[in-house]
Amino acid sequence: MKVVGGLFLNRLALFLPLVLFAALTIVLLLGLDKDPSELPSVLVGEPFPSFSLPALHDADKTLDERDVIGEVVLVNIWATWCFACRIEHAMLNQLAEQGVKVIGLNYKDNREAAITWLNERGDPYAFSVFDERGRLGIDLGVYGAPETYLLDATGTIRHRRVGVVDDRVWNNEFRDLYAQLIAVQR
After folding, report:
1. Domain tally, the chain
2. How big, in percent rounded to 5, are the helix, strand and coil portions of the chain?
3. What span, in angstroms and rounded, lies between the C-alpha atoms of 59 and 13?
4. What range defines the domain where residue 16 resides?
5. Do the Cβ atoms of 71 and 104 come closer than 8 Å?
6. DSSP one-letter code for 48
7. Helix (H, G, I), strand (E, B) or coil at 49
């Protein structure tokens, strides 16, 4: 009987990799319909995190969460090392020209390079927070740049987008909610 049981276990061991491969394949296939830009954020519905960081353009000026409260704003996480931020930047300039208040969060970057970058490409930001070490980024749960948060006038995060904001994303995800929040603000 031991021989039969041992033979059964040996054969089962031969099929174990196949069973594990099949299980892993099923798990991966179930995740294929997920959009990686729709990463959940526990902060939606929560106040913008407290922070105390320098302004990008003035290292002696300290900004904090009170600077993002009072009106509907987009907070955009960006960096000079971020290729996708270059793609998104024209849209941010366009939104700022249309009257959308955009606040920048310069993330894990070099101050001089960031200022030069804005001088060359235009500066859509009402102001930029300089988060050299990524402390505020960590509190926001930033996966990387670019990320954009829509805040209402109380400083509550109403929407989060991981990735580039372009015309399609603005129209599908932000525009209507932004208009609703502006109407409430007035």
Report:
1. 2
2. 45, 20, 35
3. 63
4. 1-34
5. no
6. P
7. coil
Nearest-angstrom CA–CA distance, 177 and 123: 24
- 59 and 85 in a single domain? The answer is yes
Give the whole-angstrom CA distance, residue 99 versus residue 50: 26
Residues 14 and 92 in one domain: no
pLDDT reported for residue 28: 61
With 0.90 as the threshold, say if the pTM is over it.
no
- Structural domain contains residue 45: no
Has residue 37 got a pLDDT over 50?
no
Q: What is the mean pLDDT of residues 37-60?
A: 86
- Contact at 8 Å (CB) between 99 and 85? no
pLDDT for the residue numbered 20:
67
Residue 46 domain-assigned (yes or no): no
pLDDT digits (tens, 9 = 90+) for 144-174: 899 999 999 999 999 999 999 999 999 999 9
Give the DSSP letter string of 57-112: S-TT-EEEGGGG-SS-EEEEEE-TT-HHHHHHHHHHHHHHHTT--EEEEEES--HH
